[in-house]
């Protein structure tokens, strides 16, 4: 018996295709609406949590007016650069905050704009310095460096950060915009549907993979000056280096994240006590956020990007940060049987005068 074939008329086929396309657009719109509703709910919950904490501290009474001791008055700002394992590291802070008794706050800027308006800078500095209910506090967000000294602040926050090989960071960001990651797999990304590989983008001279897109880590460390965001500015790179050395407590690299966490725990146990063990036992599996569908670029693609003066500057800054991090690590740890160990205190006091009776 021959196979029975039911052929659909061309008009019905076209109608079916149109109906399917409309249904898909409707579903995408519904998903977008749900995501927006979720964001609004998250903001409402965050505001409610803040009010609860403030009310709890108000009921406690005297602590609000009393001066906080040194450790309780501590504020850390992690002005995280996109696609540098920042979510992975931040999740460690969230996991430890209840146990170590500090607050974690996300700095959510409109459209992830890393440059704040002058009036928002004033508000932010005031929040950070006078919001006692949120101290000790760990603030994180995609915001460029802000010099608190400009605003007459006596006690500045502690800045930390992590940076990454500039081409690896750009490749990760390129695919992230198209395919998202395993952290929020259902979220629709800005470039979703674009199947073009990073290699193809570079070969065609696309804007999303242009050398100008490498210019990000330098301005994040440089700050809020206009010249910081002038692509290829030598002054911006020099300022970024100056800030890294003089204004940042510690800057790690994505490729050596565990060592960065270990140093933070040794130096700032008030926040990071237990962080190394948590990362080793849980963090490497559950915290590492992986971009979906990422394809490594070819040697030809890498070589083409490396011809750019912008890459040379971003890479010079990355190498500068890496050298500084490795210098700090070399003086803080020792290796034994393939593992790193934090050095014990290596200084003491003697010949103390005048002698007590």
TrEMBL record:
Look up the coiled coil feature and give its residue ranges.
24-51
Q: What organism does the record attribute this protein to?
A: Vulpes vulpes (Red fox)
Q: What does this protein do?
A: Catalyzes the transfer of a sulfo group from 3'-phospho-5'-adenylyl sulfate (PAPS) to the 2-OH position of iduronic acid (IdoA) or glucuronic acid (GlcA) within the heparan sulfate (HS) chain and participates in HS biosynthesis. Required for metanephric development of kidney formation, suggesting that 2-O-sulfation within HS is essential for signaling between ureteric bud and metanephric mesenchyme.
Q: Where in the cell is it found?
A: Golgi apparatus membrane
Q: Tell whether Thylakoid is among the UniProt keywords.
A: no
Q: Which family does it belong to?
A: Belongs to the sulfotransferase 3 family.
| Name listed for the protein in its UniProt record | Heparan sulfate 2-O-sulfotransferase 1
**Subunit structure as annotated in this protein's UniProt entry:** Homotrimer. Interacts with the C5-epimerase GLCE.
Give TM regions: none
